[in-house]
Amino acid sequence: MGATPRARLFLRGRANVRPRDWAAAMAETVLLAMVLLAFTRLHAVVGTDVATATANALAVQSVEQMLHLNIELATNRWLTEHETVIPAAVLVYRFYYAALLWVLVWIYIRHAEVYVQVRRTFVAMTGLAVLAFWAMPTSPPRFALPGVVDIFAEHDILNSRSTRDMSNGANFTAMPSLHVAWSAWCAYAVWSAVRGAHPRAALLAWLLPVVMVADVLATGNHYLLDVVGSGVLLIASIAIATGWGRLVGHRFRPSLR
Predict the structure, then answer these.
(1) Is residue 3 part of a domain?
(2) Is residue 5 domain-resident?
(3) pLDDT tens digits for the chain (257 residues)?
(4) Which residues contact 108 (CB under 8 A, 6 or more apart)?
């Protein structure tokens, strides 16, 4: 028995749509891969001036002391006194990229209505972060704050020596904290996608950056002011993405005659 007209129409539509969807997905994958590759290369070289990074770290510490925000040593000490928590802290710091990837894929597949905005925000955030690292290379507390224990030097599950490599510029880009910024981006993306249908559940997404803030402070990787810088980075990136969208929309809007 042959297919009904409705079934044939459905199958024809699936045949027409699927290649286009795959092409769009591949284009997005290539775009984001290029962005991340460029970021990785630049991240490793923009902060190689150790003297400048140390001086900037001391300046950050001075401002925090003046404002009574210097909590890094206390949080790091708490973690070292609770060794059973250290593996979880290392896991959160090392594998938050999985959350980043999951959110990108989930938004693309399930919430296309907000995908372009959150992708533009992500790209803007990555570019602004590189500029910030270049303008203000900063040594993390584990290098520049006396008394802070370098958690990763002893407990890194990847057993990576790169965390102590003085020639690796990525070790001197504490301002702002990209771990916090990208975690906040994940929260922003999820919140944007579900706030209409599930406003209360959408707020739970912001627990991820809250956990990351505690993590980067306790492991000696960032100052509290780095976290503030991450918030500024997210807000600026959203503003750029919004302006970007309006510019594109205005440019391609058909003129009314």
Answers:
(1) no
(2) no
(3) 455 444 444 344 444 434 457 787 788 888 888 988 888 888 777 877 788 999 999 999 999 999 999 999 999 999 999 999 999 999 999 888 899 999 999 999 999 899 999 999 999 999 999 999 999 999 999 999 999 998 887 777 665 555 665 556 567 889 999 999 999 999 999 999 999 888 888 999 999 999 999 999 999 999 999 999 999 999 999 999 999 888 876 655 544 33
(4) 25, 28, 115
Domain range for 228: 11-252
- Asked whether residue 22 is domain-assigned, the answer is yes
Q: How many domains does the chain have?
A: 1
Residue 31 CB coordination number (10 Å): 12
- Global pTM value: 0.83
- CA nearest neighbour of 216 among 188, 186, 157, 175: 175
**139 Rama class: left (phi>0) / alpha (psi -120 to 50) / beta:** beta
CA-CA distance, 130 to 83, in Å (whole number)?
A: 34
